[in-house]
Amino acid sequence: MTAAETADRFDPRAIQSKWQQRWAAMDIFSADDDPADPRPRTYLLDMFPYPSGDLHMGHAEAYALGDAMARYYFLRGHNVLHPIGWDAFGLPAENAAIRNNTHPADWTYANIEVQAASFRQYGVSFDWSRRLQTCDPDYYKWTQWLFLRFYERGLAYRADGYVNWCPVDQTVLANEQVIAGKCERCGSEVVRRVLTQWYFKITEYADRLLADMAALEGKWPDRVLLMQRNWIGRSEGAEVAFQIEARDDPVTVFTTRPDTLYGATFFVVAADSPLAAELCAPEQQSALSDYVAEVRKLTDIERQSADREKTGVFLGRHAVNPVNGERIPIWAADYVLPDYGTGAIMAVPAHDQRDLDFARVFGLPVRVVLDTDSPDPAVTGVATPGAGTLVNSGPLDGLSKQAAIARIIEILAERGLGRGAVNYRLRDWLLSRQRFWGAPIPIVYCDGCGEVPVPDDQLPVVLPDLRGQELAPKGASPLAAATDWVATECPKCGGPAKRDTDTMDTFVDSSWYFLRYCSPSFEHGPFEVEAVRRWSPVNLYVGGVEHAILHLLYSRFFVKVLHDMRMVDFTEPFTALVNQGQVINHGKAMSKSLGNGVNLGEQLAAHGVDAIRLTMIFASPPEDDIDWADMNPDALVKFLGRVARVAADVAAAPAARAGAADPAAGDPDLRKVTHRTIDEVTRLVEATRLNVAVARLMELVSAARRTIDSGPGGGDPAVREAAEALAVMLSLFAPYTAEECWEILGHEPSVAQAGWPTADPALVVQDTVVCVVQVDGKLRDRLEVPASVGADELRALALASAPAERALAGRGVRTVIVRAPRLVNIVSS
RNA sequence: GGGGCCGUAGCCCAACGGCAGGAGGCACAGGAUUUAGGUUCCUGGCAGUGUGGGUUCGAAUCCCACCGGCCCCA
User: Fold this and answer.
1) Calpha distance A575→A552 (Å, rounded)
2) Closest protein residue to B15 using CA and C1' atoms?
């Protein structure tokens, strides 16, 4: 390519297939597992995709970002692990299989191949040799193995749990599939139903999941840490035992406000809890069961909504307030959830809004026990949850809220009626799914031996070959219909046994995949301990904020368990985290129903890979959303043309060959810009401020253009220096154009192996700077001063400034603020 | 209802508490090149930082309130 040939608009698409082929033949981005490799190791991880079809705009942004960071570390000479795989189990494959009368694997693997091809076209620097798919038996074998280790440690257990059940579709629905209490698919009313389910005991790790976040501070986005803290939801308070009339055992409640115990005027149990049924007096049983039938139609979110009119049923029984012996009525209501705390609460209507709303509906007493200087809640209907001074509370009277909490816990503890306690919002992780396309739970049930884990040497428990209508929901997991598969023999006694017919939540698969990448074909365990020790934890994890809570929390949980098993020597999997924003269109998330989707393939075809990647990077800070309607990829096509033209002008100049001329002989102004740009871009990339880094590259291109056009021409060694630095730095974002430029400049491919340019400190420092002279904070003069100027000298220079003197207008000088060498502020008296 | 984030030219975005010659780009206008309203190169205008207080020698930046938008929990 010569300057003449690029006279027309540069077309970055023209060089793509040439470089795709040449890169495919070169092994550039493989991580070196040799323990003796002396290079620093960097593990750069992109969240792996779900193969729902081809890559979309969101992928384009996320992988452009991760790839820029990976390529940076490659160029810095690190031994980089930048793997790719697929989160390949999940419901969409199952639905597609039912629709098309095929096997979910057909759809899954076909989509994976489409995405893999798109990744290669997109020029992402993956180590393809480590590719994995969570639906491969030699992957889910180890998911099952890990389940069994959790089981052995008592961290996996079976219990009854509530699920959203659609009576028409005969299936369990995820919370997201329940819209306003109705089934998303058929519109029928969803009910809550009890099923026996497997759980991981993540609550046992709640305190560690919370405490270890201190190490992530500043390296993970603040809002993600905040979301995780809120999700874990630690609250301090007390457990208080209430005697129940005509019952031997007391019922314990958790409260964050034990100070208001004297204000408890009634007691509420979750209507649909076993406790409600047990406590209910015989004459109220039918009222309760009618009520429970209504409650089961509601989702948790509706039940806890503050706007809903409170409902409930009196159970015909009373509890006894342990501090004052008062008889308080026991009610069943839906605003208390059966699986939160103990499923029962003490109600203090004066100081809790939901309790007050309930009390006002049913005419229950409201007793103020905390003077907060606010109007009486019984009159206003507004509870007073704030701080104040205790009243009507016996020994607590006169104490502050904080002091009363401490005192009442002492009193309760002395009398054996309660104790200080911590409660977490976090629930155990329900991992059973009544689905086919997931990892089977490796447990069998034997009439004689009960629940028996599948021995390690019988793993994997491979999915049976079901397809099409066999996967349609029929009231139980599709696996239950595979009777030949279900029937097995008990590993313990050899007698007849049945397999568990549920599969694991796909979040289990994704909670350890980053460990598998370190030794993807290891056959003696989920990962080779030494390989993980070398590569982990992940240095930088890039992915969407939609995983801010569950995936990241589950992965952190897994690593902590593995740490306790002594299989890893760290406790946090991801040292640093970057959440890229969403790509939206006209202010809204892209969706089929809005019809505002933008097709990535069409964008790539229209503008080329480099321009799309660069648009994604340049649009905004990585964590901000990109509104595609505001973007103009052609602007970046133009920029790529400017870069290519600089390279072409260098190559067209007869004198200069690669490595032939000393840059020191070139234009000194351009050299300063080049080295300052290298310095700045380096720091910007390390801070993932990539949009600003691109702006700096644009400035460097303009500076090179100025030098070329103003006389020295493309033959000036400083122009070559600039063009070479540009090609390398640009390769983070626009690998095709960068590679082409590198070749034009006379170098062997690949630019990915060229090494990151080094800034010459002598060229980065400025010898003179402009010093601003202010009078009372207003700009009055500028002085060109040596960068090394002393404070006293600068003060004298500023005071001698004529414009400053004029601005002072004869007033005296009270003080002078000197910030050498940039600023002097003269404050008048 | 609780918690958090964000408001800078027509648009996307920069600015260790210190010059808004706005870093960069889009769009727009003008000029040069050109057969060309296309390409390339050059030049230019456009905001005073959502509003009102406060802290400070100095505030887009820190604090408070309000307005508007977004996110998480409920």
Assistant:
1) 12
2) A692
Phi, psi of A336 (to 5 degrees): -100, 130
For A363, other C-beta atoms within 10 Å of its C-beta total 6
Measured CA A759 to C1' B55 distance, in angstroms:
41
pLDDT value of residue A3: 35
Confidence of residue A666 (pLDDT cuts 50, 70, 90): confident
Pairing of strands A234-244, A251-255: antiparallel
Whole-number distance in Å between A16 CA and B36 C1': 31
What whole-number distance in Å separates Cα of residue A83 and Cα of residue A33? Answer: 13
pLDDT value for A654: 67
Nearest-CA residue relative to C1' of B24: A695
Residue A616 to residues A62, A124, A191, A439, Cα–Cα distance (Å) = 9, 14, 44, 36
Q: Quote the CA–CA distance of A648 and A192 in Å, as a whole number.
A: 69
Q: Which residue is nearest to nucleotide B41 (CA to C1')?
A: A709
Please report the ipTM that was assigned to this predicted complex.
0.94
Q: What is the pLDDT averaged over residues A733-756?
A: 95
Cα separations in angstroms, A718 against A681, A728, A729: 18, 16, 16
Q: Locate tokens 């995949």: which residue?
A: A513
Residue A822, nucleotide of least CA–C1' distance? B18
- What is the arrangement of strands in the sheet containing A79-81, beginning at the earlier edge strand? A79-81, A41-46, A540-544, A577-580
Instruction: Give me the CA A249–C1' B66 separation in Å, rounded.
Output: 54
Nucleotide nearest to A778 (CA to C1'): B58
Protein residue at shortest CA distance from C1' of B72: A227
pTM, two decimal places = 0.90
Q: Which nucleotides of B are covered by protein (CB under 7 A)?
A: 1-5, 11-16, 18-21, 23-27, 38-42, 57-59, 71-74
pLDDT at A4: 35
Taking 3-state DSSP, the helix, strand and coil percentages for chain A, each rounded to the nearest 5, stand at 40, 20, 35
Per-residue pLDDT averaged across A743-768, rounded? Answer: 91
CA-based diameter of chain A, in Å? 106
Q: What is the pLDDT of residue A564?
A: 97
Question: For A612-661, what is each residue's pLDDT tens digit?
Answer: 999 999 999 999 999 998 899 999 999 999 999 999 999 988 665 666 67
What single string gives the DSSP state of each residue in A642-670? HHHHHHHHHHHSSS--TTTS-GGGS-HHH
Which residue has the closest alpha carbon to B59 C1'?
A777
Interatomic distance A631 CA / B10 C1' (Å): 15
Distance A637 CA to B26 C1' (A): 13
- Predicted confidence at residue A185, as pLDDT, reads 63
Q: What nucleotide is nearest A696 when CA is compared to C1'?
A: B24
* Cross-strand bridge partners of residue A453: A443
pLDDT tens-digit series, residues A130-180 = 999 999 999 999 999 999 999 999 999 998 877 777 777 676 766 656 655
Encode pLDDT of A264-274 as tens digits: 999 999 888 88
Where helices occur in A599-716 by DSSP H, the ranges are 600-607, 609-618, 633-652, 668-686, 690-709
Between A153 and A356, the more confident residue is A153
Q: Which nucleotide is nearest to A353 (CA to C1')?
A: B1
- Give the CA-to-C1' distance from A226 to B25 in angstroms: 34
* Backbone angles phi and psi of A425, in degrees to 5: -75, -30
Distance A634 CA to B29 C1' (A): 21
